[in-house]
Every structure is written in C-alpha cells, then in structure tokens.
C-alpha cells in the first residue's frame, strides 16, 4: 500500500506507472526466489540484527591449516607447471561491478593503469595473462589443442557501459570477442524499516530505491546464464574468480591452480599473510558447538568481535610473527566446476546474505537511511556439506596481492606497517615484485630508495615491467635471465615480446624492447642514458589527470633507448 498511496488517478502518469512495474518485474526475476523471498529473507535478517544476534553464535574460531607456498622453490615451480597444464580446462570470472567508493575514482577501476611505465590498464593485463596461459597450456599438451579459455566479466549498471566501451575500443585487447561474456548484476530493492517495507527512490516516486547486492551475485548470475553447463559440456574443470584491481594476481594463478589440481580441492581460496585490522577478511576455521566445522572467510569487520566474544580479549591482533594468525583472504577463488554445478543446482546460486542497517538510535526502530541485503562471493562454501574439500593457498604478499582500493587521503591514514592498498602502493608493488623475481632468477637488481607520495612511504625499485607472454611462470623467466645482468635503481625496463633474453645487460637508464615472436633477442652490454625521472604530484593538483593524481607521481621521460625487432631471426642489442 505504501508504494501506491501517492499515485494519482488512472490516466495520470501512466507511462511512469508502467515503468514502475517494469522495474518490479526486473527486481523479481533477478533474485533467486523473487521479491517474495527477498522480503522474507530481509525480515528475518532485520529481526536478527535488531535482536543483536551474532551470525557466528555457537562458533569458535581457530587458525586453519592450508598450503603455504614459497616463491621459486622446486615445489612452487612444479605446481606452476601443473597449473599451466590445467589452465586450458579453466574459465575465468572477473567481478567488476563495484563502484570503488573507497577509491573515489570517477571511471571504472579496470580501466586504471596497472602501472604507468607502459600505461597498460588492469583489464588489458588480465586479458593478456589469460591469453598467455591459454597458449602455454595448449603448447604443453601438444597439437590438437585449440581451446579458448572463457572470460566472464560481471558488471553492474555502474560499470557495464564503460566496460563494454573499453573492450570494444581496444579490440578486446587481442582476445576473441566471443570468448568474453558480460553478465550484468542488478541492484536489489532498498528496505525502509524493520518490517522490510520497500523504500521508494527519494527522487522518483515511481521507482523503488535500489543499491548493490554485492559480489556474491556472481554465483546466481553464472547459474542462470547457462554458462556452467556449457563449460561442463566442453569438459572444463575449474572456475577462477578474481577482483578488479590486483596487478599481481597472475603471479599467483599458475601455482594456485596447480594446488587445486594436485590436492583435488573443490574450493581453493588464495590468501596472504594478514596484518591485524587490515581491510581483508581472515580465513578461519569455525567449529560449532554441535560439532560442525567449516573453513571460511570471516569479513574484516566481523573478525574482531568474533575473537573478543570467544575468549581472545585482544581481538584482531598480530601474533609473534607480526601478522594476524588468520591468513588474509584476497578473494581469488578456484572452484572445481563439477561440484560447483551440483551445489548450484540446489541453491540456484543464492549465497548467504547479511544486512547492515544504520539505526537512528539504540532502540533500533528506525534507519538513518534505507538499507538492503548484501552478499559476498567468498561465502559460497557456507552451504557446502562437510565432505567438501575446502582449502586455501597462502603466498607472499609481495608476489600476489596489491589491490588499488583506497583514496590517497585514507591511504595516508593507514596505521604504519599496514598496507595502503592505494594507487601508489599498487604500482610500486609491481616494480618491487618484478625486481624480486628477477633477483631470484639471477639478475643483480639495485636496492630500492624510500620516497613519500601523497603522504605514503614507498620503496621505489627499478621500474621493470614485462608482457605476460615473456614471463608467465618463474621457470619461463629463469630461462630468459642468464649471465650477470644488472639494473640500477633509477632504471626502467619494458620487455614486450616473447624471446627476449637478459644476457649480461648492464642497464642504467631506460630501455624499451619490442620484439615479434619470431625474433630472438639478446640484451647484452651497457645501456646508459638519462632515463625517466620520477616527479611528485599532489593529489589535489587538478591540472593532472585523476589517474596520475591518485598515485602521487609521474615520470618525466628525459631520455630512453627504444629498440624494435620486427624481423624474425637472432638479434643482439649490443650489435
Ligand atoms: N564487486 C562487484 O562486482 N559487485 C558489487 O556489488 C560489489 C563489488 P571491494 P570488499 O581482497 O581486499 C573484498 O569493494 O567487498 C566487485 C572481500 O570481501 O573492492 O570490501 C568489485 O568490483 C574481502 O574479504 O572489496 O572486500 C571488486 O572487484 C577482501 O578479500 C570486488 O567485488 C577484500 O575484497 C571486491 O569489492 C580484498
């Protein structure tokens, strides 16, 4: 009744009234069980919230055990090989429907440069990485393998048009358009009060107000799209989920997929050591008083109260290692397709939900503003039977995790020692990881210098980047770094090609190497020039582009050597 009480008599605003029912129809069809289920679920969750019921009532947390990988050792290298082999049986799913409110960037996050040495955006890097995996995986199993790894992007009304535009205006970054599927998530209805009455849009009385439902929507969308059955018919085995702005992620994918394949995990979550209070969930073993156990992400805002309520008076605190004992969830999930489909047949992809109303006062009778139900993709294992094989894989943060989530002002306020998760740290982490990887491969890389950008202290390593087809796995990289190459801290190196070898390169400046696949290029001898210097940029300086301002620096390209090998055959830089 409350939705219609302001409606004028028939004949007035009829188009708008029809629009209202179109929206109701959409809201009804995009939620498993329709609006009736939504309202029933909301009533229950709102009642629990009002009663102050803890969703973890009856559960005791403990530290779970999982796979802990060490970059570059024999185990890591053999897991990477196993993972690359499996990749041809995988499908990738990127959840990119979030607005990135914490970052405050106006565009879509996947269009942000992953690093500004090449300027390649996150989406380009992800696509190039998937294509490289596809090629390497097919090569491993020999002729006759022409698989195209499917790539799904979940968008929302906030990101859909811009994501499609980015893909189309860049020819899908080299991927066949038919490989890419866009699934748009719908927002859900807002709730005005504890009775779960739907809220009207304050700016349009013929509209129900809506808000995002969270990344958990990806499961029901995949289920209803029919893609899972299609993948099963193509004999695919794995579905890999990942988030919008982690520029290091593909350093971790091959070995993590190798873990899933060798351990036979139905669910494998990627994790990194977590600093207490860091805004990433903690992977936790929960044991219920009735004996049930599950290994699940406990979200960052819930871990502290859960620990305090179960005999840990310090709550979410670091242990003697300087880290939280609970591994940090980076929301990269690898699900085995067969059991995933079986589970979704039961649930239709509905994921356990939560509600987070902001009450006007302690009586909890009214909300400051409307609320809605939310869900998270990592809550998928909550409905699984105890027999499910749920595991996780921990890797070094420097190798696997550097998201871009926080705006400069908030990042600068992050407690000392905790990661900033900003555009500054996201880019610097790439240079650091690449430097450490090349060091491990045998090259001499100078130590970093410490500098401050937008109030955030950062280690500045040489600015080195390479295309995924150059260095997909550590073994690939090691094979291409031979002899005593050295790179000074002020240098920048861009490697763009497959068969480029560092053989006694002495770089002090900027070198950009582009080579066609059929060219075999040896980088030898000294290369010295004035290079690219780093200039500080203040995030408030509106004369700079937003992409630059949020990272707090830009490169002044004073001098560089750029070489292009367009002909097949052997080449040497010193020549
Ligand atoms: N996303 C959607 O696609 N749709 C939505 O409705 C909302 C988001 P945030 P969050 O790795 O650092 C997660 O907002 O949710 C996409 C984990 O829950 O960046 O605060 C969005 O586009 C947490 O456990 O993160 O925290 C983005 O790609 C921890 O792992 C992704 O979902 C944390 O990420 C994540 O959205 C982390």
TrEMBL record:
Q: Which UniProt keywords apply?
A: Nucleotidyltransferase, Transferase
Q: Which GO terms describe its molecular function?
A: UTP-monosaccharide-1-phosphate uridylyltransferase activity
Catalysed reaction equations from the record: a monosaccharide 1-phosphate + UTP + H(+) = a UDP-monosaccharide + diphosphate
User: What Pfam families does the database record attribute to this sequence?
Assistant: UDPGP
Q: What does this protein do?
A: May function as the terminal enzyme of the myo-inositol oxidation (MIO) pathway. May also play a role in the salvage pathway for synthesis of nucleotide sugars.
Q: Which family does it belong to?
A: Belongs to the USP family.
Q: What is this protein called?
A: UDP-sugar pyrophosphorylase
What species was this sequence derived from? Urochloa decumbens
